[in-house]
Amino acid sequence: MRSPIAIVDVDRLDTWTRYRAGLCDTCAANCCTMPLEVQLSDLVRLGLVDAFEAEHEEPRHIAKRLQKARLIDHFNHKNVVFTMARRASGDCNFLDPKTRLCTVYDKRPETCRLHPQKKSPKPGFCAYGRRAA
Fold it and tell me: What residue spans define the domains of the chain?
């Protein structure tokens, strides 16, 4: 028997589901397959940058180090936003591939904390369901 969860195309916002309490309980972590933009404070909380470095080093130098270590893919110097690197599968590096749970949940970035209610391509909606094949 097929699962009642619909296949969602994360690139098509019209396929997204309105967020409701408990929605994440049965999700396949679709939000963890989208590009993750983080602030310097998130990188400190994750332990990828120490507080001293964040306070005394230019963000572009930090970005260069993180890119070389393959921890980020991109740095937007104008907004000081870092785009986290992902696995070849498209999954977030912090997503456990077997359980589909976040391995850094208590330290997760602000973007993840506010998703999908406030921080989402379509606030109040989620790319809920199984990933499209």
Answer: 7-127
